[in-house]
Amino acid sequence: MSLNNFRLVKKDGSSAARLGFLKTPHGDIETPIFMPVGTQATVKAMTPEELREIRAQIILANTYHLYIRPGHELIGRMGGLHKFMNWQGPILTDSGGFQVFSLGELRKIKEEGVTFQSHLDGSYHFISPEVSIAIQEALGADIIMCFDDCPPYPASRDHVLKSMEMTGRWARRCKEAKKCGDQALFGIVQGGMYRDLRQQSAAELCGIGFDGYALGGLSVGEETEVMYEILESCSELLPEDRPRYVMGIGTPEDLIEGVNFGYDMFDCVMPTRNARNGMLFTSFGSLNIRNACHAEDPAPIDPECSCYVCRNYSRAYLRHLFRSKEILASRLNTYHNLHYYLSLMEGARKAIAEGRFVQYRQEFYAKRMITGNELSDSQ
User: Fold this and answer.
1) What CATH code is carried by the domain that includes residue 201?
2) Number of domains making up the chain
3) How far apart are CA 107 and CA 115, in angstroms?
4) 127 shares its domain with 172
5) Cα(262)–Cα(138) distance, rounded to whole angstroms?
6) Which of 241, 268, 295 finishes a domain?
7) Are 262 and 18 in contact (CB under 8 A)?
8) According to the model, what pLDDT value does residue 154 have?
9) Cα 6 to chain center, whole Å?
10) Starting at the edge strand that comes first in sequence, how are the strands of the sheet with 5-11 ordered?
11) Mean pLDDT of 333-346
12) Which domain-ending residue is among 206, 235, 268?
C-alpha cells in the first residue's frame, strides 16, 4: 500500500463537486486545490515562507527542467527536492512529457522513449518511462506522474490514437519501474479531443491501477467549450476513490468548472506568468495594472481581497513599480495572484462543505458579469 491515500469527504448534492483529503508523507492536502507551479524548484518571485503565508498546500516542480539543470543526481545528493528548495510541504513532479512535446523539432519520439535536444545548449538526451520515474524518485516528490505522449492540437484521429496507445504502454512501464513505496504514482489520460479515445485511455489506465488519475493534453489550443466537454465526459470515467487532476488549465473560470465537473487538483503558470506581465486576477475579473486609469488610483487591486498586497498597496503604486521595471512589481503581483487562486479554491471547499457550491459558482460569474463589464468600459 502506498503511504499516499485519498479520502472522499463529501459530494455536492447539486453538482459533481467534491471535497477530499489527500494524505502524503509531507503533509495532508484538502481538495479541491490549486498547485502553484515551481518549474525549476522555485515558484517565481515567491519564497517558501510566502507560499506558506498564502496557505499553499502543495506545489509542482518539473522533471524535464530539473533534469536539464541542475540535474536530479545533484538534487538527490543535496537531500532531495524538499530540502534543496526549503519547502517542507507536499510536492508533485510532472513527468516531463509535456515539456518534451513542446520542444517540437528538437525531439524524436520512439517506442523506447524520447530523444531530444536541450533548450539550453542543444546537447542530446534521452528520457524513457523508466528514466522519468528514476528522475522523479531521485527528486523525492510526494506525487509523481507517468511519462506520457502529449499529441498536438489539432491532430488527426489516427495520430491521437497512436499517441494514446503509446501513453498506455508507457504507463505500464512506469508502474513496473517504480521502486519507491512512499510516492504516489498518477496515470495520465490522453486521447485528444476525441471522447471515445479518452474513454478508452481511462479504461486502460484504471485497469492498470494508479494512486490517482490526471487528464493531460488540454489547454493546448482547443476552444474552451471543447475543453469543458472533455472535462465533463471524462470525470465519470475515473474512480471516485482516487484524486482527479487536470493538468495545465488555469483561468479562474477553468478552475470553477473543473471543480463543478468533479476534479480535485489543478495547476497552471497563468497566475505567476500573468503577474509578471501586469495582469492581475480579482473577484470582478482581470485587471491590467499597466493601464493609465490606475495612475492616480488609491484603491487596492481588489477591495474584497485580504492579501498583504491589497491591505498595503494602491493600484497607483503597483502601476508605478511595473512601469519602472522594479523587481518588487513581480513579487507583489505574484503574491496577490496566487493568493487569489488559493482563496478561490478555499472558498470552493467551504461552499461544498456547506452544501452551497452551485450558489458559489453562480455568485462567481454574476460578480464578473456586473463589475467586470464596468471595469472593462472604464479601461
Assistant:
1) 3.20.20.105
2) 2
3) 6
4) yes
5) 32
6) 268
7) yes
8) 95
9) 18
10) 5-11, 18-24, 27-31
11) 98
12) 268
Domain span at residue 121?
Answer: 5-268
Count CA atoms closer than 13 A to 159's CA, side-chain side: 10
> What is the spatial distance between Cα 154 and Cα 225, in angstroms, rounded to a whole number?
15
* pLDDT tens digits along 102-126: 777 778 999 999 998 888 999 999 9
306 and 249 in one domain? Answer: no
**In this structure, are 253 and 327 located in the same domain?**
no
What letter represents residue 190's amino acid? Q
Residue 371: what pLDDT?
54
> Is the distance from CB of 162 to CB of 200 less than 8 angstroms?
no
Place of cell 495545465: 248
Specify whether 300 is located in the same domain as 357: yes
Place of cell 498506455: 168
Task: Single out the residue of 265, 345, 331 nearest to residue 90, CA to CA.
Answer: 265
Q: Is the predicted pLDDT of residue 374 greater than 60, yes or no?
A: no
- The reply to whether 17 and 119 lie within a common domain is yes
Residues 327 and 233 in one domain: no
Q: Are residues 205 and 286 in the same domain?
A: no
**Closest C-alpha among 185, 139, 338, 125 to residue 252:** 338
DSSP SS3 for 116: strand
Amino acid at 293: C
Q: Are residues 362 and 264 in the same domain?
A: no
- Express each pLDDT in 54-63 by its tens digit: 999 999 999 9
**Residues belonging to the active site:** 94, 267
Cis previous bond, 70, omega within 30: yes
Closest residue by Cα to residue 289 from 263, 259, 252, 328: 328
Nearest to 318 by CA among 172, 359, 307: 307
Residue bearing cell 511595473: 322
